[in-house]
Amino acid sequence: MNVARGAVSAGRMRAWRVHAYSAGTEELRLESARVPPLRAPDQLLVRVHTASINPLDVAMLGGYGSRILNTLRTLDGTDLEFPLVPGRDFAGEVVAAGASCRLRVGDRVWGVVPPHRPGSHAEYVTVRERWTGLAPLALSDEEAGGALYAALSACAALRVGGLPPGRRARRPPRVLLLGLGGVGHVALQLLVDAGAEVIVGCSADLCERATSLGAAAALDRSAADYDRLLEESGPYEVIVDCAGVGGAEAGSRRWRFSRFVTLSSPLLRLTDARGLVGGGCAAAAQLVADGLSAARSAPAPSSCPPHVRWAFFAPSSDDIETLRRLAERGRLSVCVERVFPWWEGVAAYERAARGGARGKLVLDFTRSPPPALAAPPAPADRTVSSR
Asked: Could you tell me which residues belong to the region Disordered (predicted)?
C-alpha cells in the first residue's frame, strides 16, 4: 500500500524540547531528534519555515493543562508526554504526503498542531491535512507562521458568541472587544469583515491600531473614565474577552450585553490542581457563578438574562480556508513584533514570558546556523543547549 508521496531521507532534525516541567525555560533545550514519520494516509510531513510562540507554549513548559492533555494523548493512541515539543502554529513546505492527501509535495502551507501533539518548534512537523491549508500568497512566511493559532482561537470565540467567521450579519451587531493582542487583532478584523460595529478596550498605544483596523471606537483601559465609557457605549450583543480577564469580569460592571465570551477558562488550571473530575466540577460551578453574577449586575431585569460562555481553540479546515481567503483579499493582517533565528529559542521564550508583546514572536527555521551549530545534529543521546 502506498502510504506517502515524497520522502525525506531517514535522518535527524533539530527540535526544541523539554523532558520535565519547570518554571521558565530551565528545561528547554535544542536537541537532535528523529524526523517524525508519517503514520496515516491523511498526514503531511512539513519542513517548518517559521513558527510562532504563543502564551500557551510558555505555560506548557511548566505543565499547564497536563492532566487533560495527557488524557487526549491516550485517546489519540499514545501515552507519550515527554519529550514535549512546543509550538502550535507554523508555515512551511510539504515534503511528504499521505496517500489520501490533496496537498502535494512542494506546496507552501500554513497550519496548526493541537496542544496534545508534538509541536512545530522543530525543523519538521507531522500534522493531519485538515489542520493545514495552502498559505496565503499575501502573507510572508513570518506572518503566516504566526497567524493560525490566534486566528482559530478568535474564530472559536466569535462562533460561541453567535457570530460565525466569514458570514456577514443581517444587521450590524454592536460588539465590545476586550484586548488587542494576537487573538484580538484577528477577532477585530473578522468582526469588521462581518459588518459589526466594534468598540475596542485596549492599552493606549494600541488605540490607533484598533481604529485603523476598522473599530468604531477604541477606549483606553488606563483612562480614569474607562469603566463609565464601557457601560455607556453599550448595549452590546456580544462582549469578546481576548484580554484574559475571564468570566468573572462579566459581573463586574453594570453594562448591558447578551453574551460574554472568554477564551480564559479556568478548566485546565482547575483540573491540574484537582484532577479531571474534581476540576471539571469546580470549573462548571465557576461558569454558573459567573453567569449568575452577570445577571445580578445587569442594569434592569430581563426575560433573557446575559450569558457567560467559554471558547476554546479548535482546528477547523473550513476556518483555515476562510482565513486564507480573507488574507488574499487584504482583509486579514498579522502583526509581527520580532523574528528570532531558530537557535535563539530560549531568548524568544523569555521574551514571550515577559508579556506585553505588540505582535507575534516568531522562530525562523530557514536561517543558516552560526558556525557552532553548523555541524550535523548530535547523536540521540547528546543535546545542544543554546545557553
From this structure: 368-387
